[in-house]
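During the no-cost extension, the postdoctoral fellow (Dr. R.K.) reprocessed legacy sequence entries with the updated structure-token encoder. One reprocessed record is reproduced below for audit purposes.
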Amino acid sequence: MLDREFATAHLLRTFDDPQAYGVHELFNQWWRYAPADVIAKYEQTFSADPDAKRWVEEGYYSEPLDLETLGRYAPGTLGRAYRDFIVENGLEAKIAMNYRVFHKMLEAQGILKTMPKAIEYAVLRGFQTHDFQHVATGYRATPRGEIALQAFNLAQLRFPYAAMWISTVTTRMTYLDPNTIEPLMDDISEGWSYGRRAGNITFARWEEMLDRPLDDIRREYGLKRDDDEVKLAA
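Re-encoded structure tokens follow.
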């Protein structure tokens, strides 16, 4: 059973208006209410998968990247494609943002005391790599592109943050806007199937591949979509 205090104070706020009270807020607040057996199941995601376990143990973080450095990479490389994505979507301020500062603030308040260390690392590293994943998968920085990418991520790693995105979207389309059911389910199903058949990109060190051709990286991870799929999540 869902904790009623959590449902009222947090879950319904996100369902009502995810722009005002985002999934990242919901994700951080949930740990105070999450049942121990559910937390254990999410922890098992990392302990049971050798790649995930190694990823967490290595604990890799990159230093913030800057546009000047990224602009030196040749056209067609991951570094240049990443720079272009950041600039075209007005994300210059976000590129150097340190999400760990926000996390540490919540941690100091005692909000995250039951969040497992593996989950902590996964969400912090996930914020660093999110826009790289947009570039690699081809999903645009649009509402539908974001939803498709979250479905892709959930298909590759059983992670509550992505699952909360999907539950928020499906709840809102069911109870508040039925006209969005078809397009959103198209995006969710396409992202899910794409993530299931592609190589796992969750653990990639994108910052160490900036000089590589983006097409080579996509071939390596099986990140290929046909024309009909590309039209989705546009």
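Residues 148 and 188 are 5 Å apart (CA to CA). The chain has 14 helices and no strands. The remaining legacy entries will be reprocessed before the final report is submitted.
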